[in-house]
Design brief:
The chain has 229 residues and is mainly β. It is 0% helix and 46% strand. It is built from no helices and 19 strands. Strands 6-7-3-9-11-13-15-1-17-19 form a ten-stranded mixed β-sheet, with no helix packed on it. The chain has a nine-stranded mixed β-sheet with strand order 2-5-8-4-10-12-14-16-18, with no helix packed on it. A hairpin with a 2-residue loop joins strand 6 and strand 7. The radius of gyration is 18 Å and the shape is globular.
């Protein structure tokens, strides 16, 4: 099945973080404008909201059969910001999971049923990236670029800037306050609808296609073409 795709064409420094391992993890630190706070999970939703003077991250671990203490939260500082991952124990093949920026690290639950629910506070000017497999990703009141991805869950993003988003089983709702991105902006889903709210002053070309899901744009002066693939 083809994925419904919206393609829009248009021209570290910080205070030492405090973290604790157990069923609840907390981290906070200052990131300069333009840097990224990235959350990488597997099971569990990510809820981010804008505000505050520092990045604040809370992760709550819960398991039914598996021990939440087996899931480690790892913080990786790098040139582009900070990446924080939920790392599950290795499986029968003993391949270690890893935390790498951009969601590039190997990370598998290996039948571990622990859920990690994330709450993130994102200051103005700091970029947000949220990645999970089973769970929703939400970004509210953000004031910089955002990137949100899941597989089984919905995506909702509201920012004064622009955002990329994707899911397989779920809907996408995006409210974007800027059209100043370079290259292509892409919002994709397979089983779900896409709703995009663009600025009234937007001037761009929008190419949209869908298989059997609804798609709409709101408050946009941009020309929109939609077709059934």
């Amino acid at each position: 099945m083809l994925a419904p795709t919206l393609l829009v064409l248009a021209g570290l420094t910080g205070s030492p973080p405090h973290a604790q391992q157990g069923n609840e993890f907390r981290w906070h630190g200052a990131l300069a404008a333009g840097k990224t706070i990235e959350i990488v999970g597997v099971n569990g939703s990510i809820d981010a909201s804008g505000g505050g003077s520092e990045v604040e991250v809370v992760a709550v671990k819960r398991g039914r059969r598996s021990d939440p203490a087996e899931v480690r939260i790892k913080v990786v500082e790098h040139a582009d910001g900070v990446t924080i991952c939920a790392l599950y124990p290795p499986g029968r093949d003993r391949e270690e999971n890893e935390c790498r920026p951009g969601g590039k690290g190997h990370n598998s639950t290996r039948d571990n049923d622990v859920n990690v629910e994330w709450t993130v506070k994102v200051p103005r000017g700091v970029r947000f990236a949220g990645r999970t497999v089973n769970g929703d990703v939400v970004g509210r009141g953000l004031a910089a670029e955002a990137e949100e991805h899941t597989v089984n869950g919905s995506v909702s993003v509201e920012t004064t800037s622009w955002a990329d988003a994707s899911t397989v089983n779920g809907s996408i709702t995006a409210r974007l306050g800027s059209t100043g991105w370079r290259g292509d902006l892409e919002l994709t889903t397979v089983n779900g609808g896409i709703t995009v709210d663009l600025p009234a002053s937007a001037s761009m070309e929008v190419d949209a296609s869908t298989v059997n899901a609804p798609m709409s744009t709101l408050h946009s002066m941009a020309p929109v073409e939609a077709s059934m693939a």
